[in-house]
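Anyone opening a protein record will find just a pair of labelled lines. A complete record is shown below as an example.
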Amino acid sequence: MLIRFYQFTIFAILGGIVLISVSFVHAEVAQTIADLEQKIATQTNAIQKLEAEIAQYQGDLTTLATKKKTLKNAIATLELTRKKLETDIKITQTKVDTTDMKIRQLGSEISYKEDELNARRQSLREALRIIQESDERSLVHVAFSNQSFSGFWNDLDTLEQFSAGVNENVELIKQLKAGLEDRNKKQKTEKGKLLDLKSNLGDQKKITEDNKKQTTKLLTQTSSQESRYQKILKDKLVLKDALEKELRDYESTLKFILDPSSIPPRGTKVFSPPLDSIRITQQFGKTSSSARLYTSGTHNGTDFGASVGTPVKAMQSGVVADTGDTDITCSKASFGKWILIRYNNGLASVYAHLSLIKASKGQVVNVGDVVGYSGNTGYSTGPHLHISVYASAGVNVESRPSRACGGRIYTMPLAAINAYLDPMDYI
């Protein structure tokens, strides 16, 4: 009978969906995905081993930082830093390779799901077309044939079962589509990670090259003699104290009236941490060591222990007011490489002693964006990140001649004394 012919055809089409689906999971695609999964697992293990190696270097650097400042220890610190930076590069390169594999794996899965989805859609369209034709022709066929209406209704019952099969395949198509969208989102995320990793890799290579130059410069300056190294340290300390006093005297003359309503209340944690791992090495204000370390007897920010090349992140959304490098004017006397960001909440902050500046003046940054990398530039007793927080209206980037630096012009953020705020009140 005609209806049974349609039933058989629909059955063949809907059954063929499964066959078509299975055929797309051919051995080559499945093997490609399996191979990539194995390689990703191998790369992940390699990353874990390299991270353990970095942890060892970091521990050695922390230990060295507590020892007396000698030429031997200074060279050892630079050498350990170089090894750590080179291992950082290996990790990042491995992550780049791993992420590339993940993108390829997702691409294979996306291609398979697209083929399966198209096959199911095509089969479903054909099944629906036959159902429609059977609905239009069945009554006419019954009227001009010897088939009883009771048999016809039995055929329609069977047809309803096939309709249920069609509905089931519609749901499968929805699931396939959702799975496809999910993998497309994951692939987009992985591609974003890949771009960030490649950018990070380039930055790490620059920092590593700068580290090598520092080692060469130190050996040249000292001629490998301890006495010369100690004299350099003494001269830098004298210069640092003179410049610090000069800046403090000038900032004391600046007039600024702090409007409490223009900034978040003290203790309001509006900032995200600037580093993934927080270790405070020097608090804000008067501390047990501030009188010894600073001519003013007080520390105008918070210091965070961080090895050279550690990513430094924007603590909140804002605009980069300016960037600079005080070492150009007075080597090893002040902030070194710095970034000033004005936030959207009435606060501003400077990131100092950086090894590399990533942000640029006028750039809009969001919380968590990498703006630079921690380092040991400027006057620094060891690699760390210095952060000063200000009432934004009370700090400005100024260019001034420095008596301590032979009249050369330095450019850096300067603020009225009462514009300085304790960073930990907001982080």
User: Anything to note?
Assistant: The CA atoms of residues 121 and 209 lie 56 Å apart. Helices lie at 2-24, 27-65, 71-143, 149-222, 226-253, 290-293. Confidence is low (pLDDT under 50) at residues 1-22, 289-295. The longest strand covers residues 347-357.
